[in-house]
Amino acid sequence: MSIAVVAALIWLIAANVIAMFPSRDQHWTNAYILIAIGIPLVGLVTYEHGPIWGMLFLVAGASVLRWPLIYLWRWVKAKLGSQEPAE
């Protein structure tokens, strides 16, 4: 196993362990840190093992960090839906 895959697996385990503990800010600080570490890991796994493994890690990470993605999706939908068409 390469270092990128080992680091990605450690990231997934750490994210799941962090999610088990209570948090005052409902894990948003932890989510920001995990996103900042996870994005370069997705790139590294994709670079070393190809797009299929990169997408698998991306899906695994998205399943752990689903609420930030849900809020991002709602924000994008609200921004795109509130624009009026040009005349």
Shape: flat
How many structural domains does the protein architecture include?
1
Strand content range: under 5%
What is the helix tally?
4
- Radius of gyration, in Å, reads 16 Å
Flag low-confidence runs.
none
Order of helices and strands: HHHH
Defining traits:
single chain; 87 residues; mainly alpha
Explain this structure.
With 87 residues, this protein is mainly alpha-helical. The protein has one domain (3-81). It contains four helices and no strands. It has helices at residues 3-20, 28-49, 51-64, 66-81. Helix 1 (3-20) packs parallel to helix 3 (51-64).
Task: Give the topology, please.
Blueprint: H1 3-20, H2 28-49, H3 51-64, H4 66-81
Helix pairs in contact: 1-2, 1-3, 2-3
Describe, in short, the structure shown.
The chain is mainly alpha-helical and 87 residues long. 80% of the residues lie in helices and 0% in strands.
